[in-house]
Amino acid sequence: MCRDIRDSAVSNAAVVDEAGAGRGRADTGRDVDVVVVGGGHNGLVCAAYLARAGVATMLVEARDEVGGCASTVSDLDARFNICSCDHTLVRAMPFMEDLDLAAHGLRYLEADPATVYLGYDGRPPWLFFNDSERTIESIGRHRPAQAEAYRRYLADARPVAELSLEMSTGPASTPKMLARLLARRGRGGVRLLQWSRASALDVMRSYFDDEALIMPAMSNGPTIWGAPPDAAGTGMAGMLYAMRHMVKTGRPVGGSGALTDALAASFTAAGGRLSCGTPVAGLLGDGRGVRGVRLADGTEIAAGAVVATCDPVPVASHWLAEPHGARVRRFVGRARSQAPGDGYQSKIDAVITDIPRYPALEDSKLLDLFEGRDTAQSNYVMSPSIEELIEAHRLRPLGRVAEHPTMMANVPSVLDPSMRSRDGHHVLSLEALFTPYNLEGGWDGSPEPARWLKVWSSLLQPGFLESVDRYRTMTPDRYEQELFLGRGYTPSYAGSPLSSLFGRRRELSRYRAPVPGLFLSGAATYPGAGIWGASGRNAAQVVMRTLQ
Question: Pairing state of beta strands 32-37 and 300-308?
Fold first, then answer.
């Protein structure tokens, strides 16, 4: 969803909206008040808040349509989600109501159980329900001791998850974050700081002695973040299960992109303007301040402020003019010295003529817990052993993929029939980690994707591979080419709650670069990656306070 307005962007008169929000802009020499760079969900959230507050806002997106990694795209006569179809944290954000997304067509479906957790060892899986007691019942069917451990874990983890969610719903501020900690009289605060320094593996091992409970938290935590499970600072993954009991996982009807479509509709309904199809090449200004953006085709858009929701490293290292002042030079120098991140995620999208079934689930005596619902509605997470995961991290810089990669599989069209292919078949999403950007031998013609399908199908009913009618593979090189992600890497905020509390890397945790007129948002800023949108909302609040 996008319309090209670059021709009008260079004309002050052309961007004055019908409601008069842009009146007087010709007198200032600006085309708009704010340019938001990047049309992913964070950029759209930020832009929609600004437009609805009466700020003349233009959003520029390099691709031909908005959505970024939250998009749903057409290919193979079907619709596929660029990334996972499951949304959790975004559903807890106030902007769902603030931006009237339901009025713009957004509606969620919920699978229950939301997730089935499996290993490669053939042991019985366990089911994650929105309701914690039903989850504990599922665990207790085969692992009674772990069920009791899960109950103890929730008692400790819920306050941490509640506090983390509270802290993410506003711009990071040391006084405000300290006030939240004090108001809770330490409930959850001490553990949050302890976990933020620990490793995810250590946190989960302090509650569970069965890898069946430990490894899914690694798969949906450090592995998704590109970090090893024993890395210090990854311990906040310990609140994963508790957070997902607090906020129900859901899937937008029509695919993940229904969220960004609704955000774009909310933005344009408020008078915002979209421009797609041409990347930003640089920032206007003299190094002492930012006064707009220059597109790759030479178009210049003058603005009072720029919000960059893309990777902040190229913004600082390539887009800024010669830096002035010690703080700006440090900001640019840090970006220029930072090694580029490498993508590590791949995804197979397929049209299938049969539904995958898992014998380990069929034989587990857990089917009655589905209460008649199709078992293929759920998301399936296949986790390797801890030794295999550590080996996967060793192989990644060598350009090799582990024998048993972490994989996530779902068939979105079972829960949402609108996702079926044009010829009426189901669609499959199969994500694989870690799949290095610099694959040994290169991605072109690589047998790796076909091997992942075989590895995954070894967990399914015999002959399932014959039902794969057609498929495509998104590998790090394709993410780079098609989504403008350098080296296929999706940036994420690496700061701990402790570093956010005290404002370290202020440009990432407070959204304001040390260059007047430049603000940062997106997955690389607080509170982090995933379909969340908190940083987009928080950055909009900072920009509006500055403009006022």
Answer: parallel
Residue 474 phi/psi, 5-degree rounding, is: -100, 110
Give the pTM.
0.94
Beta bridge partners of residue 282, listed in sequence order? 294
Instruction: Report the pLDDT averaged over residues 519-530.
Output: 90
- pLDDT at residue 21 is higher than 70: no
Using CA atoms, how far apart are residues 381 and 405, in angstroms rounded to an integer? 11
Q: Which of 514, 188, 523 is nearest to 331 (CA)?
A: 514
Q: Helix, strand or coil for residue 356?
A: coil
Place of tokens 């800023």: 525
Which SS3 state, helix, strand or coil, does residue 541 take? helix
User: In this structure, are strands 273-276 and 280-285 parallel, antiparallel, or unpaired?
Assistant: unpaired
Of 543, 528, 534, nearest to 224 (Cα)?
Answer: 528
Identify the band that residue 3 occupies on the pLDDT scale cut at 50, 70 and 90: low
Give the single-character DSSP code of 67: B
CA-wise closest residue to 231 among 526, 496, 528? 496
DSSP 315: I
Query: Do the strands 251-252 and 273-276 form a parallel or antiparallel pair, or are they unpaired?
Result: unpaired
Residue 538: closest CA among 160, 167, 200, 270: 167
pLDDT tens, position by position, 345-400: 999 999 999 999 999 999 999 999 999 999 999 999 999 999 999 999 999 999 99
- Answer yes or no: are the C-beta atoms of 466 and 498 closer than 8 Å: no
Ranges 195-199, 221-225, 424-428, most confident: 424-428
Gap between the Cα atoms of 505 and 459, Å rounded: 44
Find out whether 35 and 29 touch, Cβ atoms under 8 Å. Answer: no
Residue 494 banded pLDDT, cuts 50, 70, 90: confident
Counting beta carbons within 10 angstroms of the beta carbon of residue 444, is it exposed (0 to 12), middle (13 to 18) or buried (19 or more)?
exposed
